[in-house]
Amino acid sequence: MRKIGFIGLGMMGLPMAHLLCEAGHELIVQDVNATAAERFAAAHPGARVAVAPADFGAAEVLITMLPNSAVVNEVLSSLVGILPQGAVVVDMSSSDPVQTRELAGKLAGAGIAMLDAPVSGGVTKAVDGSLAIMVGGAGSAVETVRPILATLGRVITHVGPIGAGHALKALNNYVSAAGLIATAEAIHAGVAFGLDPNTVVDVINASTGKNNTTENKAHQFMLSGTFNSGFSLALQAKDVGIAVSLGTALGQKMELGRKIEEITHDASAALGAGADHTELYRYVRPE
Ligand code: NAD
C-alpha cells in the first residue's frame, strides 16, 4: 500500500480517489474547494486532508486531477522542495504537453520524476475504474505506478516520453469533439427533413457514422435533454485548443480543428461556465 497525495477532487478526481482508498492506499487529499476535501476525508478512513503543503512531505506518489496546465503548474511548483526525493508525480489532468515537458524538467531538478497520464472514458468509467489511461514518461516510473493506475483504468498504454500522453489525449478529444458536432448537426438536419431523432441515432449506430457520441451521448444526454455527462464544455474547448495549437506548431493545417475550436470556444462563451459539453447539441441548432 502506498502513501498517495491526490489533488483535485472534482467530477473525475472524486471517484478516482475513492477507488484508490478502496484499494487500501493511504491518501492525503487537497482541493481548493475545502468542503470537497473535508467531505471526502470524512467518508474515507484511509484519507486525510492536507492543511499545509508540508503534509505532502511523505507522499511517494502525487496524483493531480486539475482543470488545466496553469493550475497544475501552480500547484506542483508550490510542492518543489516538499515532495521527497524519488517521489513520482502523475498528472492525470488533460494538460498542455509543451507545458508538461517544461514542468517535468523543473521537477527533475528537485529529484522528482513526472509522468503525464491523462484519462479517457468520462465520469462513468472513472466510477467503475475502467478508464483508458495514456502515459508519457520514463519506463521505470511507469512501472512504479502501474499497479496504482491499474486500480483506475483497464487499458494502460505507455505512449512515449513525457508529454506524449497529454498530446495524445488532446488529439483524441479533438476527434471526439468533431464526432459530437457532426452528430448534433446530423440529428438536427434529419429532424428538419421529418425524421425521428431517435431513429437517426439508432440507424447511425448500425451504420458507418457510429461514434462515441452516437453510442454514449446522443440518447443519454442530448435527446433526453439532461445534458449532464459530467464533462464541461469549457474543458472540451480547452482540449481542442491544445490539439489545434500543437498541430499548428508542428506544421499541420488543422483546418477542421480550427473550425471546431471556434465552435466550442464560442459555445462555451455563450452557454457559460457551467455548461456541459453535450449542450453543443442545442448550441448548433438553428434558431
Ligand atoms: P472539475 O472542474 O470537476 O474538477 C477540478 C477540480 O480541481 C475541482 O474540484 C476544483 O475545485 C479543483 N481545483 C481547481 N483549482 C485548484 C487548485 N488550485 N488547487 C486544488 N484544487 C483545485 O473537472 P473534472 O471534470 O474533474 O476534470 C479534471 C481534469 O480531467 C481536467 O483536466 C479535464 O479536462 C480532465 N478530464 C475530464 C473528464 C470528464 O469527463 N469530466 C474526462 C477526462 C478527462
UniProtKB/TrEMBL annotation:
The EC category is: oxidoreductase
What are the 3-hydroxyisobutyrate dehydrogenase-like NAD-binding domain coordinates in residue numbering?
A: 163-283
Query: What does the UniProt keyword field contain?
Result: NAD, Oxidoreductase
This chain belongs to the protein called NAD(P)-dependent oxidoreductase
> For this protein, what is the EC number?
1.1.-.-
Provide the species name. Bordetella petrii
Ranges of residues in domain 6-phosphogluconate dehydrogenase NADP-binding? 3-160
| Gene3D superfamilies tied to this protein | N-(1-d-carboxylethyl)-l-norvaline Dehydrogenase, domain 2 (1.10.1040.10), NAD(P)-binding Rossmann-like Domain (3.40.50.720)
Instruction: Check the record and name the Pfam families matching this protein.
Output: NAD_binding_11, NAD_binding_2
Does this entry carry the keyword Cytoplasm?
no
Task: Provide a Gene Ontology MF annotation, just one.
Answer: oxidoreductase activity
The record's listing under InterPro entries reads: 6-PGluconate_DH-like_C_sf, 6PGD_dom2, 6PGDH_NADP-bd, HIBADH-like_NADP-bd, HIBADH-related, NAD(P)-bd_dom_sf
